[in-house]
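Data deposition worksheet. Section B asks for the primary sequence of the deposited chain exactly as it was used as input, without tags or linkers unless they were present during the calculation. Section C holds the resulting structure in token form. Section D is free text for depositor observations; keep each observation to a single sentence. Incomplete worksheets are returned to the depositor.
Section A, Depositor: J.P.
Section B:
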Amino acid sequence: MSEIFLILGSAAIGFSFAEVSMIPQAFALWLRDRFNIGKSLDAYKYLKTPYRLKPFDCGYCLSFWVAFLSAMYFNYNILFSLMIGFGSSIVAITLKKYL
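Section C:
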């Protein structure tokens, strides 16, 4: 039963931080402006997407890593931790689809 809460909680934390709060996107823009990171790359001239700071600005990636690392912290074995991480990503996909 605690695994379900681990999956749902990690998906909610990762999705809400990455997709709703917009903190990672603002931080990526601050890094670009402050330290000239990414301005020297020629590829950004042709892309119309904003600067990204992966895995922190992707709700799916962040929910996977939060679930995986918290499962490893709670001493689950590696295979079960991966299953919890992938389950959390699937829940994050359904959160984005229906919210």
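Section D:
Residues 30 and 74 are 34 Å apart (CA to CA).
The mean pLDDT is 83.
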